[in-house]
Design brief:
The protein is of the alpha+beta class and 236 residues long. It contains eight helices and eight strands.
């Protein structure tokens, strides 16, 4: 198994999948998708992907439809995706993906978390290069041969593919998302969920006390309503 498998395994064991937070994130994704490409999922591939993710997270259909309707309203503020970078104690790089309708508020909040937890907020590009930006797709395992599928999907950018208890997962570079989504749809293969992740190229092992220092900062960041995802180089 490769780095993507180990990364997903480690994150799956993490504490951070509170249902309310997940629904908030999906709601923001819907707003950004609708503002970008319109409210019709048939003609908006990004919205189509978000709806699949909402279904995978057991988000009620009424909530999804309500979010799409609200996003179509001209008075609804759009969210801007902003990336923050920095270092936690003990040299651990942190990459933070946010979706905000008030960048000044988000900048102030993120900076305060770093300051309170002995971290350092970095400049643009200071740690992003330490992470591979990837896309991923989950499909049903039934009727699929993993090795055969891997050979067929290499041409569309897939670099790693593996099966787990929830289906088959494919990883590829960020830029390959559109071509893989299109090919899976052309083959009438159901996409259970899809998304983007940033996988650290190297990780650093810490002592239990050092881990506690880093976790303190991570928890503060993850609790912020504007934060969508947090990635780091600490070995889990």
């Amino acid at each position: 198994m490769g780095r993507a498998f180990e990364f997903r395994k480690a994150r799956k064991m993490k504490r951070w999948s509170a249902m309310a937070k997940t629904f908030t994130r999906i709601g923001k994704d819907i707003v950004m998708a609708v503002k970008e490409g319109g409210p019709n999922p048939e003609t908006n591939s990004r919205l189509r992907a978000v709806i699949q993710n909402a279904k995978a997270a057991n988000m009620p259909k009424d909530n999804v439809e309500r979010a799409i309707k609200k996003a179509s309203d001209k008075d609804t503020a759009n969210f801007k995706e902003v990336l923050f970078e920095g270092y936690a104690p003990h040299g651990i790089a942190i990459l933070i993906e946010t979706a905000t309708d008030n960048n000044n508020r988000t900048v102030a909040n993120i900076r305060s978390y770093f300051n309170k937890c002995n971290g350092t907020m970095g400049t643009q590009g200071s740690v992003e290069f330490m992470f591979d930006h990837t896309c991923n797709f989950r499909i049903p395992a039934e009727g699929q041969d993993v090795e055969e599928l891997e050979l067929e999907m290499i041409d569309f950018g897939v670099e790693e593919i593996f099966a787990d208890e929830d289906g088959i997962v494919m990883y590829a570079p960020f830029e390959s998302f559109g071509s893989i989504q299109k090919e899976l749809e052309n083959r009438n293969i159901e996409i259970l969920s899809s998304g983007f992740e940033r996988i650290p190229q190297i990780t650093k092992e810490l002592t239990p006390d050092q881990i506690a220092d880093v976790e303190k900062l991570l928890e503060k960041i993850e609790e912020d309503d504007d934060v969508m995802n947090v990635y780091h180089t600490m070995q889990e």
